[in-house]
Design a protein that fits this description.
The protein is an alpha/beta fold. The protein is 35% helix and 21% strand. The strands form 3 sheets. The protein has an 8-stranded mixed beta sheet with strand order 8-9-11-10-14-18-15-16, with helices on both faces. Strands 1, 2, 3, 4, 5, 6 and 7 form a 7-stranded mixed beta sheet that branches. β15, α13 and β16 form a beta-alpha-beta unit. The radius of gyration is 24 Å and the shape is elongated. The relative contact order is 0.12. The protein binds ligand BES and zinc ion (ZN) (2 copies). The site of ligand BES has 14 residues, from loops.
Length: 512
């Protein structure tokens, strides 16, 4: 892999899934009626108050087709909603997937239907595809789910083993019925999540901090965004001793990625901050071996922020957006930070590093301070795979967030709800502030072992660096990969929170 990185400019692009090229080209159209199509994707739902009975939820499907499809299913003996099935009427095919009966938002139901559809459709050689909205379930969400489901990372396989399937994917997708918003935004969302998921799923020998910065630079240049990369010496000059200390055990230097997106109103700025640990071995406070490979995903906050930058490059936000990603790897070696070492953060506060595995907060401490002091923003939102503890608090269906500002907290909650990305707010109990005070330094990076609320402690530590700016911190450790929420891929990266971040910026002006 190392060799490959050196060959040719932008060699990383050959690793982008076929989905990326396809999504960039596929023709999209919205229809108020049922268009002619080689293939249709429809949803089945249970009938109310009649056990087992089901119906097709596709208001635009003509009655005759509906009758014939139901008849075929009766003949096939399906008394309950079947697994996804494909039927034929004349020259057209109809794939029927089940609509979730859970009490979930319509956007999430839509995405799940798209994901289920993708499993069937990706191997069928479909030429044109019509996605049918349900009575409540928007076709735009189904398209988004389809995009999530068609993602397949093949670049790390032997070329001859590559399964290049895009020629079988539809050239055209028609959205029939209720579509939320502009389908071009869904196209962007698929492209952005595809980029973000590649970075997340890629192994850390491929996506090291240098490669992360290179990809951010290439993407920014191509999309007309300005991007600045700072490496160790410059970060040192800026006083980012906390951030730098995390990378002390690696030959690959820490890279601070800063991308600017110009908004329509240049007087206001919003900052997105992402934790970009391309690998987190824990450092000298080494993690156990079991499952350590998963720590290649410790850059998912950064990947979501880069994905959001890509999204915003295609749909200009009302305010300026600055994206900051701290790309670094936490390894063990003779130059690593040791437990007990004291580092000086950019804010001037010193931090006793009692556990080198609580490194994300060291990175974010400097980035948050830089964000508020340099940019004087309206708001700062950081995203990080910060604590294992969040998995015990909320599991893998939604993410936790904390905030120092009621207005930002409710804006974030509402935005996430409309993006179909479940978020739940946790409190920042004032009593916890004393748990991160150190005897020797100003702060320590972990609390005593009696304090079990790891996610709150992480948030409390970060709050010290947010100053008086409205700030929210989202802990995506439970959802960034192997997300169990409806409407997310069952395994691998999820690009969770990417859409919420983009929408937070796009709707900012009207939210005030
Ligand atoms: N990257 C981890 C958090 C993590 C753990 C993410 C499991 C996803 C799954 C983070 O850097 C970490 O190691 N946090 C420690 C903090 C502790 C030492 C206070 C943790 O959660 O155990
Ligand atoms: Zn760690
Ligand atoms: Zn980490």
């Amino acid at each position: 892999m190392q060799q490959e990185q050196k060959t040719g400019q932008q060699a990383w692009k050959t690793f982008l899934p076929e989905l990326f090229n396809w999504a960039g080209q596929v023709k999209l159209s919205v229809h108020p009626d049922c268009p002619e199509s080689h293939h249709h994707l429809l949803m089945l739902r249970e009938k109310k108050d009649s056990e087992g009975a089901y119906e097709i939820d596709a208001p635009l499907l003509p009655d005759e087709q509906r009758r014939q499809l139901m008849q075929q299913m009766t003949e096939l003996g399906y008394q309950k909603i079947p697994e996804p099935v494909t039927l034929r009427l004349g020259d057209s095919f109809y794939t029927l997937v089940s609509q979730s009966a859970l009490d979930l938002s319509d956007v999430r139901k839509a995405r799940q239907a798209g994901l289920d559809g993708a499993r069937i459709l990706k191997n069928l050689g479909v030429k044109s595809l019509c996605l049918h909205a349900g009575e409540q379930v928007p076709s735009s969400g189904i398209l988004e789910g389809l995009g999530l489901g068609l993602y397949q990372l093949t670049g790390f396989r032997n070329q001859s083993g590559n399964n290049r399937v895009s020629q079988q994917w539809p050239e055209r997708i028609m959205l029939a019925g209720n579509c939320h918003g502009d389908p071009e935004e869904i196209r962007t969302s698929i492209l952005a999540s595809c980029l973000s998921r590649l970075l997340a799923d890629a192994p850390s020998d491929w996506l090291n901090p240098e490669q992360f910065a290179k990809i951010a630079e290439d993407m920014s240049a191509e999309q007309g965004l300005s991007c600045r990369i700072r490496k160790r010496a410059e970060l040192q000059d800026m006083g980012m001793g906390a951030f730098i200390s995390v990378g002390n055990g690696s030959v690959c230097e820490p890279h601070l990625i800063e991308i600017q997106i110009k908004g329509k109103n240049p007087d206001k700025t919003m900052v997105l901050v992402g934790k970009g640990l391309t690998f987190d071995a824990g450092g000298v406070s080494l993690k156990p071996s079991l499952g350590m490979d998963e720590m290649k995903y410790d850059m998912c906050g950064g990947a979501a922020v880069l994905g959001a930058a890509y999204y915003l490059s295609r749909h200009q936000p009302p305010v300026n957006v600055v994206c900051l990603i701290g790309a670094v790897e936490n390894l063990i070696g003779s130059t690593s930070t040791r437990p007990g070492d004291i580092v000086r953060s950019m804010s001037g506060k010193t931090i006793e590093v009692l556990n080198t595995d609580a490194e994300g907060r060291l990175v974010l401490a400097d980035l948050l301070h830089y964000a508020q002091s340099q940019w004087k923003p309206e708001a700062v939102v950081d995203v990080a795979t910060l604590t294992g503890a969040v998995l015990y608090a909320l599991g893998s269906i939604g993410s936790a967030f904390v905030s120092n500002d009621r207005h930002l907290a409710s804006y974030l909650r509402n935005t996430a709800e409309s993006a179909g990305e479940p978020l739940w707010e946790l409190p920042l109990w004032p009593e916890l502030a004393r748990e991160v005070r150190s005897e020797l330094a100003d702060l320590k990076n972990i609390a005593g072992s009696a304090v079990k609320a790891g996610t709150l402690v992480g948030g409390t530590f970060l709050r010290e660096f947010a100053g008086s700016v409205p700030w929210a911190h989202i802990d995506i450790a439970g959802t960034a990969w192997n997300c169990k929420g409806t409407g997310y891929p069952a395994s691998g990266s999820s690009a969770f929170i990417l859409k919420t971040l983009a929408k937070l910026c796009l709707n900012y002006e009207s939210a005030l």
